[in-house]
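Re: [help] complex structure
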Amino acid sequence: MDSVTEHAKPHQHNEHEGHAAEGVQRSDATATNSASQRSFYKSRVAIYPKLVHGTYRRLKWLVMIVTLGIYYITPWIRWYRGPGMPDQAVLVDFAHERFYFFFIELWPQEVYYITGLLILAALGIFLASAVLGRVWCGYACPQTVWTDLYVAVERWVEGDRAARMRLAAEPMSFGKLRKRLTKHFIWLLIAFATGGALVFYCADAPTLLHDLVTGNAGTFAYAFIGILTFTTYSLAGLMREQVCTYMCPWPRIQAALIDHETLSVLYRSDRGEPRGPHKKGQPWEGRGHCIDCNQCVAACPMGIDIRDGAQLECINCALCIDACDEVMEKVGLPKRLIAYDTGDNIERRLAGQKPRYRIVRARTLLYAVLLSAIGLFMLYALDTRATMGLDVLRDRNPTFIALSDGSVRNGYTLKLMNHADHARELILTIEDLRHPAMTAIGLEDAENVSSVPVEVGPDTVYPLRVLVTLPPSAIHSRSMDMEFIMKDPKTGEESEVHTVFLSGDLQQ
Amino acid sequence: MATDKEIDSHSGTETTGHEWDGIKELNTPLPRWWLTIFYACIAFAVGYWILMPAWPLANGYTHGLLGYHQRDAVMADIGKLQSFRAGEAAGLDKDSLEQIVASPKLLQFAEAEGKSVFGDNCAPCHGSGAQGSRGFPNLNDDDWLWGGKLEDIQHTITVGVRSTSPDTRQSQMPAWGRDHMLTPAQINDLTEYVVHLSHRPADAAAVQRATKLFADNCAPCHGPEGKGSQQFGAPNLTDNIWLYGPTRADIHDQIWNGHGGVMPTWGGRLSPETIKALAVYVHSLGGGQ
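Output below.
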């Protein structure tokens, strides 16, 4: 339900307040989404953030262009990997169970690299939070970026805050319907493009685009586009600040990552209070610099009042800084009454001390050390990553076979993995057993031999069933330890897998 | 008792008018999102009744406008699968067993099909890993009663053992003791002789006494050296593998009672191509010759 609580007059002085400084508007915007105002039993009160101009608005436009650019362009970047390999730089290839990221290629068996990457991402955001507060929420979170984009569209179609509020209060008319339809249509287009871009990460983008347009793409592609269209439209268009206030766990977690010396968007109450309307020419002595014009509230996409202090609903988007700066400039006071500051500094200034900014603190140091340690470990792990691997599954049914001459046979299914981009000849041998005879099913000249050469193609898993036979003289226990050794004679690289040879109670 | 639209003063919500010991029930409306989904489900259900098979009738059911039939869908899926496999299936049909084994693609196909068919038809007796059990041969080892070559295995599966086919593999170990063909003492001596044949310590005097007995009664099938004969399905008595058990008691029991199992005739029940696949699978278990 839209409720109009203000009648802003964009290009004239507010009559009731008389003689405020040239160009200063007053807004009777209320912080409808602040904890004290909102009720769980009330429907959402719509928020109409007002456009501001300034450093942070420009920065946010820039971040929006960069992040959206990364999102839309990444799947189209090409990266040559050799013949027969996908040439998409970033590709999550579910069908072939591979993840490609520029020069890195991960197999499902190496999913721990993703875990490491997630740990790095978590630590990175911890560090960013400890130093710069909710910088993720304010600039880079997809919810923020897309909501910002949707608000921009809304503003473009329906006008700024006051016009939007007037439109909401109007009864339905042809003009209102046209504006609303235009807005929702553009929103849906953006949502569709968002969903459409995601699926390009999971298949060869040019091929998929062709298939999508000609209607030949898989059901999954269409389904995921549909799902993402729906979520983007509803999260960024309809739910907006409610996602951050009610759905997202991150604001709650973040409270534990931020301390008194973290830079956050704060109202400098030491300078602003006591606040009150100010008429042009009045002295500034004996009062605070906040003229209570409410422009910070009108600009807030979260529907809060930054002057209430740091609060869960605040995503630190810094738009109120720009809103306030515009006013401060007009009334001839220094900018940054609302600024990136620390709670500690506000207290220090009140106590007459010099403000200080300590980026190196126990907390930031710990995050930085952990981040670089894990980062270095990951780089090391990636650099020394094995280019081949061996898995051994021993037969369980039957566990062993007694042969007519008293020897015993065990069966094993081996998975020979070659991560390299070229075919390799790998030599399979057995250690720790006396006189083992290997028979590799399906290979030529591999019957009762002591070593088996296997040609494994590029970037493949080669399944091989191997039967191992031991003469009675070599059997001394029901279960004997043994090792399969896979060696690349060219590079000397070796994989070793421990397993057992079972013979049960044969001595009858 | 109940008055229309009584409003609870504390919450401002309408009550249902029901009262228990001074406590009144609030008439809290259902959440709108819930109601929307609820009505959407009803609308969906009505559409479903019209389009899809839905209501049981006295003689059948409502078919629905789309004419959807689950069995047709299954048959279409099976048809798709069959056409997908057509190449390999044709290869299985016309190629010889040797050709199948020589072609990696056909071999893989035959092994996969054989494994599945084995699980359905053979596993109840031979075990899911073809490891067999007492009286049911282990198909993994290298000891074959009727031969371990591809053609032998194919033939055994097709005709069965002691079964209904006129060509069935046929052999009968006499019940030497039960049918009073030999005396209990002679059977004891023969037991020692068989133990001796498999290179285990045995009573030398008994072995001496049984030598002629074995030559007269057993050698015609098992051979003079007891190495058996795949022509007669007579097991090799000198090796380490015993269908009815390796101990003296087991051997004695077998000479006395002459056990012999039955394997069904699969020709006619399974198609020739399926039997080919089964033969390839059994041969690939490791004991094939």
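The interface with chain A takes residues 104, 107, 127-131, 138, 140-143, 236, 239-241, 246-247, 284, 286-287 of chain B (CB under 8 Å).
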